[in-house]
Amino acid sequence: MSAAARRVSARAQQSRRLRRFVRVLLVLVCIAVVVWVGLGAWFLSERHRSEPVRSDAIVMLAGADDGRHRVARNLLQDGYAPELLVSNPDSAGKKKAAELCRMKATDCFSPVPKTTAGEVRAVREAAEGAEDSGDGWDSIIVVTNKPHAARAGAFFRRCLEEAGEDGGPIAVRVVSIEGLDKSRLPIHVLRETAGFIKEATVAEAC
């Protein structure tokens, strides 16, 4: 084979390899898009949220001023529970949280660490305190945003299995805000996915 023919053959092989690479890359991109869309739809699914019912306490998880403060306040004022626990009043929504902290029947706390795990531990301690005082909890309402509802609900239910009255489970109903900043949805998906992976691989103590 002449040198020219070898060069042509080499270029043809390179071209075939490039086409195969592009096809594989396109397939991977399509799979990633499908997975991404699926995760987003799953995190936003209505199955992770509930209608509020009369409960022993309302717990508002820390977060931005995205409407959760209003939802928590309205639930308390509408009589869905006799007390409201507000997590981390020095968070991004600190002004609104501070307003809630001045309301009657409201207890503000700063979880350690300042994560969902820390919030769950603080609520568990509050539930155990209520049990010790003879007024144990049977149910709580957790207020957060839509993307966080799935992980928050799963974490609270796992850690409150034996924290209720007479050592029974505490029923957890998650109520989320209606609005959602769609520009931040990718961040929410990444954060919640990472949170589930962390919980599955490194079991966090309740």
Can you put this structure into words, describing what you see?
The protein is α/β, with parallel strands linked by helices and 206 residues long. It has a 5-stranded parallel sheet, with helices on both faces. The mean pLDDT is 84. The N and C termini lie far apart (72 Å). It is built from 6 helices and 5 strands; from the N terminus they run αβαβαβαβαβα. Helix 1 crosses helix 6 and helix 4 crosses helix 5. Strand 2, helix 3 and strand 3 form a beta-alpha-beta unit. The protein has 2 domains: 43 residues; 153 residues, Rossmann fold (3-Layer(aba) Sandwich).
- Give the total of beta strands: 5
Strand order, largest beta sheet: 3-2-1-4-5
Order of helices and strands: HEHEHEHEHEH
- The CATH architecture classification of the largest domain is 3-Layer(aba) Sandwich
DSSP strand (E) fraction?
Answer: 5-15%
CATH topology-level fold name of the largest domain: Rossmann fold
User: By helix and strand content, what is the structural category?
Assistant: alpha/beta
- Characterize the overall form: elongated
What integer is the average pLDDT?
84
Cα separation of the termini: 72 Å
Into which percent range does the helicity of residues fall? 40-55%
CA-atom Rg in angstroms:
24 Å
Count, helices: 6
Question: Can you tell me the CATH class of the largest domain?
Answer: Alpha Beta
Low-pLDDT residue intervals, each spanning 5 or more residues: none
Count of all domains: 2
Question: What summary fits the major beta sheet?
Answer: 5 strands, parallel
